[in-house]
Every structure is written in C-alpha cells, then in structure tokens.
Amino acid sequence: MNRYKFRENLFKLLFLSEFHSQEDMEQQKELFFDSEEFENVITTDKDKILDKYEHIIPLIEKIDDRINEVASGWSTERMGRVELTILRLAVYEMIYDEDVPVSVAINEAVELAKKYGQDESPSFINGILAKLA
User: Fold this and answer.
1) 132 with 91: CB under 8 angstroms?
2) Is the pLDDT at 79 greater than 90, yes or no?
C-alpha cells in the first residue's frame, strides 16, 4: 500500500471515530477492515494503520489545542468533521511523526481536503497548517 493510500485509510478510520464511542470503535475497526477495499491488503498494512490510529487517538486533545491556538475565528467544535479529521492527521504527522516531513504532511492534507472536503476546504486546511509550520 502506498503512502497516500495508507494516509487515506487512516483518515477514514479517524473519521469513523468522530461518530462512535471508543467502545464501539472495536467493532467499527473490524467492519472497516472487512470491507472489499481491504480484500487484497496484507495484514502488516492493516496493522500499521491500526498502530498509527492507536497513537493518534490519545493525542487528540493536545492536537486540538494546537489547532485552536492558530485557527483565528474558528474552534475545533465549529469545524466540519472532515476538515477537523484531516487537520488532526496532519498535525499529528507534523509534530509527532518524525518520518513525515512537514511539507509532505501539509501537501497530503490539502490533497485529502480536495477529495473529501468542500470547495473551500483545501485553502482552509492549508491556511491553518501553514500557521503551525
């Protein structure tokens, strides 16, 4: 699985957690990985996605604090769930994942925003992440 597909699947899993309790997420993770999309994906890729997910979840509050520090006129409570999830993933990569250069984290977040967000999402994401860089 390439890095973009990995990041996209991690985004989807994080997005699911916006709508389910942590207790429900165990079942949601199983359903997520039982989908057709993962039929030909090797177990190590699934494990890597889950591992990264498990690293991000406990940091959500700290990540949201960082986003709120720079999001002038916005708060994480007011943001769309797609945009917030993309921002959380990108901020995690920028601050906590030494394997991902900051510029790559920003670029990939903008690409996810183009695919999953609204028309103004890419510039919104880019603006917030540029303030953090």
Assistant:
1) yes
2) yes
**Whole-number pLDDT of residue 55:** 96
Beta strands in the chain (DSSP E): none
Residue 3 host element (H or E): helix 3-17
Residue given tokens 């899993």 in the structure block = 13
pLDDT by residue (tens digit) across 87-128?
A: 999 999 999 999 999 999 999 999 999 999 999 999 999 999
Side chain identity at residue 93, one-letter code: E
* Residue boundaries of the structural domains of the chain: 3-132
Distance CA(46)–CA(108), nearest Å, equals: 20
Q: Which amino acid is at 83?
A: E
Q: What is the CATH architecture of 3-132?
A: Orthogonal Bundle (1.10)
Helix, strand, or coil (residue 99): coil
